[in-house]
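Exercise: predict the structure of this protein bound to S-adenosylmethionine.
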Amino acid sequence: MFSYRHAFHAGNHADVLKHTVLIATLTHLLEKDAALTVVDTHAGAGLYRLDGDYADTSGEAAEGLLRLIAAKPKDGAPLADAIARYLGVIADFNPKGGAKVYPGSPFIIQHLLRDHDRLKLYELHPTDAKTLDANIAQLDAGRQIAVLREDGFLSASKFLPPPSRRALVLMDPSYEIKSDYGRVLEFAAEALKRFATGTYAVWYPIIPRPEAHDLPRRLKTMATKAGKSWLHATLTVKSSKLTSTPTGETKRPGLPASGMFLINPPFTLKPQLAAALPQLAELLAQDRHAAFSLDSGG
Ligand code: SAM
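Solution:
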């Protein structure tokens, strides 16, 4: 069984990028009245406490969400719409101010959906699946949300196309096992075959591993061959080089960067991210290697 628990990482810079893109995408898709189905193939526990043991141990939110809340763009410019919207959603979960509670993708999505939209959540880790179930049960959302303790890669594509014929599919595996990279590609290929007009969003870590570099390249080839539009956004907050401690030990830098790759993105996403990414790179920079990229095609 996997050891990855999202509670250690909730609210880190990767979540900031992923959830900013998720909210901007959903906001556009929800402008149409027609029902939308959202599928979250790797849901996690749904809600996290940033003042709890897990988050305290890793302190990752301090370099992500908490830094963003405290920061102001240098040139005095207002925050880009997409960032303001992301912070607005976080604030909705923390009505007394601050950020004690962090909503994971299931709660962010549910918060934005309307009554006639649907949400399907897949989570395999027994503890996180149980927590997710309990968290979702509190919403009393009835048939709007289905929580499935199943392999999202195996089960979710069978559900496509959804009855609504409009869908956003978020793929956010932990990449704890190398095969996750290949499984994302297989899933995306199968999903596109079944439902070519769906919007697909993949988060991935940018780490020194060939599979991580190949993934966006191969997704781009897949989208292009299928005649679909795509968008690729990355955010780097620090150097990926190993560093030495004063005692001469080698230290890993932790996750330095991550990316989001979308197939059939909303046309509004690129201008939204063109304004948001430079600010995120500036405000979340941990060293001079902080950077962003934004590319699209199709
Ligand atoms: N999407 C969540 C968010 O943004 O709040 C975070 C998800 S976390 C990065 C990845 C989750 O996928 C973990 O909770 C892990 O237990 C779960 N997982 C791993 N492999 C899975 C699989 N094949 N199917 C469903 N869930 C899986």
